């Protein structure tokens, strides 16, 4: 009739499984909030954003007849249509602030000259950052439950900006730089990083991969802006890295603070999952272990490139090095969007396998074509594009498996792969100091990625129930 409305339910994009919704949606008048009527009850529940209980009908014996799974379903009203784009833009800008540490390669040479240290030693702040960043993310879900998305986002950006300001006060002292950017900055990003991802997944549940890719694209885009701005200030105004740290620290507090204030869940609610996820059961889950393995190898390769990018081609000028860093960051951002889109339109873990395989080939063959600055630019672009996948594919896959409400805790544990991968810059820097190139270190990393590809591929077994293939 004239009051009827159409609501689309998308259960994680899983079209292969036949589903049946238990309950109904009812809207008495066109201007009123729709309500959900659960089974065997006449008590209506607001339906602007629901976590519904589904039954997957599979047939078979007693153990296979049915199982329950929680999935989030978006029942949108007009009020939510416009604000979710405010959320998306704020998420991108907030992640752009958090991604500034990815510009670390621009500061490596100036710090080597100021402190008289080797390549491996000046990578220490970057490695410490990628220890405390994922370690804090393990607990970010608990912080989020206590504070809500807005307060947690404000807390994260405030700590991160304070860390860069602290590093700016560390002139002549690498320990203070490590404490500021590595420890304090890592804790700040660890608290705030998953908030834009979780919030965008809640507001765009039908496009989890693309929403995740867009929200974290700012992480790479911010590195491109900071690397170019830092290079310009250090070359044209003779700024020291410490002056750059302090200036950008205040910028992060201002820009990131405004964006953090925009963060909120749909209808201002902090939605809970159907049941609390047990940490041990998640860690023992085969799917978790595969995602952890893939993310570890992808990050290990990415960190080795990010931290040493300016030195992969020995004849690179400061301008060529900074350009390569910017290209890596821009293609990193584009890769996050593209790989998120690919994830939404492919089956199983196909996108993860292709991503790891492509990156492995790029690293393994780099010494063959690394003959000039344009080869460096091509390498930086391709490596950055693939590395972008590591920061979106695993988050999207985790959101599909455990849902948006459990994503902060589940992805927090998967993201702890950063802790082990954080040794990569020091690993690659050690081989560079010893052999004056990255050929051996990149070859070893490539073999590690190939092993991960094979393991994930072999795990893609499919069960058949009454002739139907179930992923």
Q: Descriptors for this entry?
A:
single chain, 471 residues, mainly alpha, 3-stranded antiparallel β-sheet, 19 helices, 8 strands, 7% strand, globular, disordered N terminus, disordered C terminus
Report on the structure:
The protein has helices at residues 78-98, 105-115, 124-147, 149-168, 174-192, 194-203, 208-236, 241-262, 279-284, 286-308, 318-344, 350-364, 366-369, 373-390, 393-402, 407-414, 417-421, 424-435, 439-458, and strands at residues 19-21, 24-26, 35-37, 45-46, 49-57, 66-74, 463-465, 468-470. A hairpin with a 7-residue loop joins strand 3 and strand 4. With 471 residues, it is mainly α. Mean pLDDT is 78; it is low at 1-79, 273-277 and 463-471. Strands 1-5-6 form a 3-stranded antiparallel β-sheet, with no helix packed on it. A 3-stranded antiparallel β-sheet has the order 2-3-4, with no helix packed on it. It contains 19 helices and 8 strands.
Question: What topology does this entry show?
Answer:
Layout: E1 19-21, E2 24-26, E3 35-37, E4 45-46, E5 49-57, E6 66-74, H1 78-98, H2 105-115, H3 124-147, H4 149-168, H5 174-192, H6 194-203, H7 208-236, H8 241-262, H9 279-284, H10 286-308, H11 318-344, H12 350-364, H13 366-369, H14 373-390, H15 393-402, H16 407-414, H17 417-421, H18 424-435, H19 439-458, E7 463-465, E8 468-470
Antiparallel strand pairs: 1-5, 2-3, 3-4, 5-6, 7-8
Helix pairs in contact: 1-6, 1-7, 1-8, 3-4, 3-5, 3-16, 4-5, 4-8, 6-7, 7-11, 7-15, 10-12, 10-14, 10-18, 10-19, 11-14, 12-14, 12-19, 15-16
């Amino acid at each position: 009739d004239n009051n009827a409305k159409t609501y689309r339910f998308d259960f994680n994009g899983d079209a292969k499984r036949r589903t049946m919704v238990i309950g109904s949606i009812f809207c008495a008048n066109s201007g009123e909030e729709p309500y959900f009527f659960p089974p065997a009850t006449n008590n209506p529940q607001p339906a602007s954003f629901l976590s519904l209980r589904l039954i997957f009908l599979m047939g078979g014996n007693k153990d296979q007849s049915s199982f329950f799974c929680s999935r989030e379903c978006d029942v949108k009203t007009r009020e939510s249509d416009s604000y979710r784009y405010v959320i998306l833009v704020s998420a991108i800008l907030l992640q752009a602030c958090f991604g500034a540490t990815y510009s670390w390669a621009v500061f490596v040479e100036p710090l080597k000259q100021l402190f008289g240290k080797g390549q491996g030693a000046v990578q220490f702040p970057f490695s410490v950052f990628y220890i405390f960043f994922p370690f804090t993310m393990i607990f970010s879900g608990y912080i989020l439950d206590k504070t809500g998305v807005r307060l947690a986002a404000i807390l994260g950006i405030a700590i991160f900006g304070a860390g860069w300001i602290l590093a700016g006060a560390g002139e002549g002292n690498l320990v203070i730089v490590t404490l500021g950017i590595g420890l304090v900055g890592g804790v700040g990003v660890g608290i705030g990083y998953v908030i834009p991802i979780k919030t965008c997944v809640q507001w765009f549940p039908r496009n989890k991969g693309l929403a995740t890719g867009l929200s974290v694209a700012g992480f790479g885009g911010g590195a491109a802006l900071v690397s170019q701005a830092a290079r310009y200030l250090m070359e044209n105004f003779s700024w020291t890295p410490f002056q750059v740290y302090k200036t950008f620290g205040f910028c992060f507090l201002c820009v990131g603070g405004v964006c953090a204030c925009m963060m909120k869940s749909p209808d201002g609610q902090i939605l809970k999952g159907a049941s609390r996820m047990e940490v041990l059961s998640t860690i023992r889950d085969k799917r978790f272990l595969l995602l952890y393995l893939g993310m570890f190898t992808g990050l290990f390769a990415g960190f080795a490139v990010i931290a040493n990018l300016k030195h992969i081609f020995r004849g690179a000028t400061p301008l060529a090095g900074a350009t390569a860093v910017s290209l890596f960051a821009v293609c990193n951002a584009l890769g996050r969007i593209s790989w998120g889109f690919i994830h939404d339109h492919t089956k199983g873990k196909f996108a993860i396998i292709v991503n790891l395989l492509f990156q492995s080939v790029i690293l393994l063959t780099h010494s063959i074509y690394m003959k000039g600055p344009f080869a460096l630019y091509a390498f930086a672009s391709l490596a950055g594009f693939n590395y972008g996948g590591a920061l979106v594919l695993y988050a999207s896959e985790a959101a599909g498996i455990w849902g948006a409400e459990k994503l902060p805790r589940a992805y927090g544990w998967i993201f702890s792969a950063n802790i082990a991968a954080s040794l990569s810059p020091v690993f690659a820097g050690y081989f560079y100091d010893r052999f004056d190139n990255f050929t051996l270190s990149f070859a070893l990393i490539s073999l590690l990625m190939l092993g991960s590809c094979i393991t994930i591929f072999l795990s893609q077994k499919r069960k058949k129930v009454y002739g139907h293939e179930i992923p």
